[in-house]
Design brief:
single chain, mainly alpha, 2 domains, globular, coiled coil
Length: about 475
């Protein structure tokens, strides 16, 4: 009987701790919303011209920002601090977030396809610059010295090793058979994903598919007709017959449009982050407005409305600072709270408590996911199966399906697009090569195997520039 009572007591203690966690998570979401709405309004004002241009093309993106702005300015209704009933609920914000994610994915699919055309154009123009510079063309290449420099560059910092290796892959000609490419993709993914969950495996491979061919993404062509039409036009551009002026014009035009698209994606991601915080508010508002928090929150809402109305920069900055300090304080206290929860969980060791603990754990992970959300990803409700490590059979099937996906796509592509897309995937993987020797064998083939003098000199120039850029960005050593 004593054990039963002690078990019940521990469960009650856990519930109280969990309620405190919800309260703190809700407070973080609230202060983040206030801060982020102030900041995003500043960004919207700066990009007003872009929004007006899109509206003329039939895409009223500004409407999404205005709707969430309105919800923030009436946040007391959502919190239950008003006589007006909150009729929105969590589902409204979940659906709103899905719409934002769809817009971001649509833009991302255009950016992916544009980036391939830009990469090809930049490569062709770079080769022409090398041709014009006869000093490069006449120089003999000391490959032994080159490989030594690259090895030293890669090995000087274990943290950036993979990042540097991937960048070098992007800079050299792609020289690899399809069979070898598929073998590397398969081995790399099986090794890298073997401790992922099924959901994580699916998400990761889906992202690789989108990286390889953005035009097959579900959202491709669904929104932003202007960018869609431009993207389709660039894909049909004939690089073989085009002159240098036409390629230069293409490069400049794509570069300008990509900046627009990346700006839009960044702003929509910021909006998605705010919407995720509203979802946390809906999940936690019952606990958020208890005790002394109610007065603090009411005061912040009052100040928030004032600064949004008056546009007083000094008062805005002051409120931003208050919100930042509040969040930092709460986050610091969360570490201690989570440790207390962990300690209490260890006291419940019987099987009957397993489901009880799992429910706590899953809900906490989901709320933390919304708090950390970068805005551009879909956050699905978690289940216990999402926490289990993927089986070997499932992983192998998923990887083999991805390779078949690549193979089907390659058959309908011109050679110039095949190579640039395969190179992009190779440079996205982790642990592509089993040893330094294997990588340097690939590098040697890229630089020597059926490689023109222009391609070789351009690759050498780009590698040198890469090494120099890392050297320049190294943190300076303290002379003391």
């Amino acid at each position: 009987m004593k054990d039963i009572k002690s078990g019940v007591q521990v469960e009650n203690d856990l519930q109280n701790l969990y309620n405190e966690f919800l309260k703190k998570a809700g407070a973080i979401a609230f202060y983040d919303i206030v801060r982020d709405i102030i900041l995003i309004n500043r960004s919207v004002d700066e990009k007003r011209e872009l929004f007006e241009k899109l509206e003329k093309e039939g895409e009223n993106v500004l409407d999404y920002f205005e709707k969430i702005n309105d919800k923030a300015l009436n946040i007391e209704i959502i919190l239950g601090l008003s006589d007006i009933e909150d009729k929105l609920g969590e589902e409204y914000f979940r659906n709103f977030k899905d719409k934002i994610v769809d817009l971001i994915r649509c833009l991302d699919s255009y950016a992916t396809e544009m980036s391939y055309s830009l990469e090809i154009a930049s490569q062709l123009l770079g080769k022409e610059l090398v041709k014009e510079n006869n000093d490069y063309m006449d120089k003999a290449v000391n490959f032994e010295r080159l490989y030594s420099d690259v090895f030293e560059f890669l090995m000087e910092d274990g943290i950036t090793f993979q990042e540097k290796l991937n960048e070098i892959i992007r800079l050299v000609p792609f020289r690899m058979s399809k069979h070898k490419f598929y073998d590397i993709v398969r081995t790399s993914l099986l090794n890298y994903l073997n401790d992922f969950s099924e959901r994580e495996v699916n998400d990761y491979i889906e992202e690789l598919k989108n990286t390889f061919n953005g035009s097959l993404r579900l959202q491709y062509g669904k929104s932003f007709d202007y960018y869609f039409t431009k993207t389709q036009g660039y894909k049909k551009f004939d690089f073989k017959t085009a002159n240098l002026n036409e390629i230069e014009k293409l490069k400049d035009e794509i570069s300008k449009l990509l900046l627009e698209i990346y700006d839009l994606m960044e702003m929509l991601s910021s909006l998605g982050t705010i919407v995720s915080k509203f979802i946390v508010i809906e999940k936690t508002k019952k606990y958020l407005t208890e005790d002394l928090n109610r007065e603090d929150i009411t005061e912040i809402i009052k100040r928030f409305k004032e600064v949004m109305k008056d546009e007083n920069l000094e008062k805005r900055q002051e409120l931003l600072l208050i919100c930042e300090e509040k969040v930092n304080y709460i986050i610091a206290s969360l570490d201690k709270l989570i440790k207390l929860i962990d300690d209490k969980e260890k006291e419940l060791k019987n099987d009957e408590s397993k489901d009880y603990l799992n429910n706590f754990y899953i809900e906490m992970i989901e709320i933390v996911s919304y708090l950390k959300d970068l805005g551009y990803e879909e956050i699905k409700p978690l289940s216990e199966s999402d926490l289990k490590i993927v089986s070997d059979d499932y992983l192998e099937q998923a990887v083999d399906n991805f390779i078949q996906y690549i193979d089907r796509n390659l058959k309908d592509m011109t050679n110039i697009y095949r190579k640039v897309r395969m190179r992009r995937i190779l440079s996205t993987l982790n642990g592509q090569f089993n040893s330094p020797e294997e990588f340097f064998e690939y590098l040697e083939n890229s630089l020597k195997l059926n490689t023109s003098e222009e391609d070789l000199q351009l690759a050498l120039y780009n590698i040198a520039e890469l090494i120099i850029s890392y050297e320049q960005n190294k943190p300076k050593k303290d002379s003391n």
